[in-house]
Amino acid sequence: MIDFEGKLTPYHQTAQIVIGLIENGITPGKEVFVTPRVANANEETAFRQIMAFLSITETIVSAKEYNDIQPIIEVILPMVSSADELIEVKKRIDSVAKLAEKEFKMKKNKNLLQIIPLIEEVPELLNIDSIIYQFVTKLRNNDYPVDYLRFMLGRSDPALSYGNVSAVLANRVALSKAYKIAESLNINIYPIFGGGALPFRGHVTLENIYNVLETYPGLKTITIQSGLRYDQPRTKLIELIKILNNELPNSKAHFCSETEYQQLYNYVGIFTANYLDAFFEIIPEVAKLSDYIPKQRDRLARKSGVGYARDIARPEEIAKLVNIESIKNKLNKLNTDKKFALPRAITFTASLYSVGLPPVFIGTGRG
What we know:
By secondary structure, this protein is an alpha/beta fold. It folds into 2 domains: 2-250, Phosphoenolpyruvate-binding domains (TIM Barrel, Alpha-Beta Barrel), CATH 3.20.20; 258-361, no CATH class. It has helices at residues 13-23, 46-63, 83-104, 122-126, 128-141, 156-162, 164-185, 209-215, 226-230, 234-247, 258-290, 315-319, 325-333, 345-354, and strands at 2-3, 36-37, 74-77, 114-119, 148-154, 188-194, 221-222. Helix 8 links the parallel strand 6 (188-194) and strand 7 (221-222). Helix 5 packs parallel to helix 7. Keywords: Carbon dioxide fixation, Lyase, Magnesium, Pyruvate.
């Protein structure tokens, strides 16, 4: 994954990676899949998003000199909250493609790039069936063929905003709802789990991988992040990949009943309320500390004219789903008007570990 979201990723990195693979005898789009994550225009700017699409399109054109296989076929759109923004991105891709067709004689392709929606907030995860239904329906209404859909479930960011337990439960709800709506739409879906190595970020490790597979039934892809690649022995990574290659193709979804959904909504409400109660007390100091955590790559500043920060939680959206009045009231009374820029999940987690408070503990005991 080439990551343009919130980072100073060079424009030519896409072509550099793709052409480098080809020159080393590896065919992108066939033997390996290069999948850029682009900026969300609502959180950063449309200019940054279009820049990424231009980089991708130039790479597709450049790769034609080596073979006829399109090297990049999908892009990840982060922080998705509605089907409408996905359609806007699809049309933006079309605009860039038309420019490439005109200037570089690129072959016309109405479905040049498929979008992988990345759902990263608990309310959106709990409402994923509506997002998928509207997205697929709008694609078909605009004459885009839809045979399958890949989407990505965020694990770190919902944990940051709503707590570890709420993030786990919301992902379980999302998988069940996604498979159910896919049946009604007559499409195949291939969910991706975007998790890290630490428990707060997904606990994707060799020692815990079978728990991950049991907790999130129906996954077809699990991301391998840098904490797993570089902080543990290579032999562990190889063993983990072997397990995933064997287990993921056979992973079956669990379909929740309406009673189970309501129980899960209530549990999410309970743990969210207790997490945020503590979170709002500590976050101003944690945010200050997070600015001192060493950056492992060039990112946009959290507070700047070109940067962005994660949105504060929206507990009132969860309250709408809860049927326990005391929890509903507690969620609605939480003060979300406080003004501060949330740190990234990585630096939030690192900050709390640095002071001896693993973030998985926050709000869990009282839940």
